Amino acid sequence: LSLLVTMQGETTAIRITENEGKLDVFPQNRTPSSGRASAKSWQYSDHMENIDGYLMKYTNLVTGWQYRFFVLNNEAGLLEYFVNEQSRPQKPRGMLPLAGAVISPSDEDSHTFTVNAISGEQYKLRATDAKERQHWVSRLQICTQHHTEAMGKMMTQAQGQHRDLIQSIEGLPAAPGLSPLDQDLLMLKATSMATMNCLNECLHILHLQQMARQRGSLGGPTIEWLEPKLPDILKNGSSSLGSFTTGEGPLSDHILLPFLSQEQEDIDADDEAEDCFTDKEEDLGAVEEERSVILHLLSQLKLGMDLTRVVLPTFILEKRSLLEMYADFMSHPDLFVAITDGSSPEDRMVRFVEYYLTSFHEGRKGAIAKKPYNPIIGETFHCSWKVPKRPDASKEPSQGSPEPAATTQDPYQVRFVAEQVSHHPPVSGFYAECQERRMCVNTHVWTKSKFMGMSIGVSMIGEGCLYLLEHDEEYTFTLPCAYARSILTVPWVELGGKVTISCTKSGYSAVITFQTKPFYGGKLHKVTAEVKHNPTNAVVCRVQGEWNGVLEFSYTSGETRVVDVTKLPVTRKLVRLTEKQGPTESRRLWQHVTESLRQKDIEKATEHKRILEERQRTEERHRAETETAWRTRYFDREGEGWVYHKPLWKNSAFKS
């Protein structure tokens, strides 16, 4: 297939050979140049060519882009760079071997491209314009292809020499003192065979790495974070961690128990006790000590990169799973139950907005931005809350009336279950219900994170629906984005974005805006909300304040009500003891990572985490090989979402 392309008045031929997949670019009306990569004169040809010139090289987040003088050494198969052209006679500042490398034009802009060496090292480079980038990319690709093919040819030659050696030895005539069965000759044959096997394995690994990098350049880069390992952790007789190798030891759950889809658990309320887990994420020591590690990690990232595949260092983890964090958003179950007490559709919408706005503060364990554990597919979390019953619950506290006193009646029970229903993409489903009040909420969330320079942004993609069966109302809602700011100093959490709550039956809706702090001035954690009656377009309530501080509700009647989120009573959740939990329950699954983090033993926590994740990858490969689909336990796929398998709204006993 040949194409003719006109660039700056000159015709260039591009020939694509389908069988070999080679791209040849050469001019039709151009005289050869000196080979220097400049914007004025380039030489396009299908033969290898030494070129040099200035390119910008991305060093890291702190240093940024720097001009460096690059030299393509075709004979050696190296891309070398120097501080400037004058320092070229000196030793190169750095170099990348191009055999097996992947050269990828970036989709960031038309000037940037990357050179990914087989060793894992990467150069991120930027040319002055698109034409110069294309010149460098094409020359680098030709050199890379040549030296990659040369590796295969060398292997073929070595195999031929190995066969010649074996044939020479086996063709020796039987003579005294010399025989094909001579011990030294047998050792020579064995050594040659072992060497060839080793070379074959190395070449196979290089090919696999190259294919993986080519796939990664198409579907987004994958970064495996190299965390510290415990060299003796899996050895028998380890004195400090000897129980690792015993069936009764702390890792027995991780190693011996099959991590496959299991049957649903029947939770006995008598097994649950008030949660005594009170850790606050206030320790900044590890983050400050490991700042250089964070800098190195950041230097590997690019703006907008999807962090789903990036394995982050263990010391930035908080001591709970993401599934448990979702449960902690319901730490004010009294406000949740009170939604259905509203005497009118307007009041119930305002109550839901109040519950929604007050849920995020307690969901965060302290002000420090740390990352919860990424749930393993099939991981679950169960808990419940007891909510005291109150007389005259139908009165409207949203209009400023005092809270009625609790009674001695048996409390309401709110039950919660969460499950990680998907690994790629990472999707969690969670469901909560209060059967006695005939209300429940079902939510599915896909967490998608990306690198934003000095921040990390997390989009919570999905939707939730609150069902008030007593009133035959459904409230659909979305979730805000979260941001980890100042990740090099004192990381902190900020919410941002616009979310909506709507009830089709009543015609009421709410728009909540979480405002991120402007670059200069402005308040932190600011939020505003507006409740509207859509048929009349009338605003019935406005809210302003901070989602982790004071919120002011203003009504059309002129009345106002203030809610201080920090002073709201927190109801501790009820959970089973770890030993009574199933093997895939969050706290049991992550218990050794959590305990190691409490002891500030980052290496041990890293190893426990690695074993869990490796087990997940092994079983994922097993399912792929056996073509076995993953089967969830508590949530079923419905359209684009996930729904709890036994929701109240499908139970005729709880319908109106």
Provide the β-strand percentage band: 25-35%
Low-pLDDT runs of 5+ residues are: 1-45, 213-261, 393-402
Estimate the global geometry from the Cα principal axes.
elongated
* Quantity of strands, as a count: 29
Structural class: alpha+beta
Q: Approximately how much helix is present in the residues?
A: 25-40%
- Can you give the mean pLDDT? 77
- Gyration radius, in Å: 32 Å
End-to-end CA span: 69 Å
Number of helices: 11
Largest sheet: 13 strands, antiparallel
What does this protein look like?
The protein has 656 residues and is of the alpha+beta class. The protein has 11 helices and 29 strands. It has helices at 130-170, 183-219, 252-256, 285-289, 291-299, 322-328, 333-338, 345-363, 586-589, 591-598, 602-626; strands at 2-7, 10-17, 22-27, 52-58, 65-73, 78-82, 94-97, 102-105, 112-116, 122-126, 272-274, 317-321, 371-373, 380-387, 412-422, 427-434, 439-451, 456-468, 473-477, 481-485, 492-503, 508-515, 526-533, 538-546, 550-555, 560-564, 574-576, 635-638, 641-644. Strands 14, 15, 16, 17, 18, 19, 20, 21, 22, 23, 24, 25 and 26 form a 13-stranded antiparallel sheet that branches. The chain has a 7-stranded antiparallel sheet with strand order 7-6-5-4-10-9-8, sandwiched between helices. The longest helix is centred in the N-terminal third of the chain and has 41 residues, at 130-170. 30% of the residues are buried. The model is unreliable at 1-45, 213-261 and 393-402 (pLDDT under 50). Residues 389-409 are annotated as: Disordered. Pfam families: Oxysterol_BP, PH. Residues 48-145 form the PH domain.
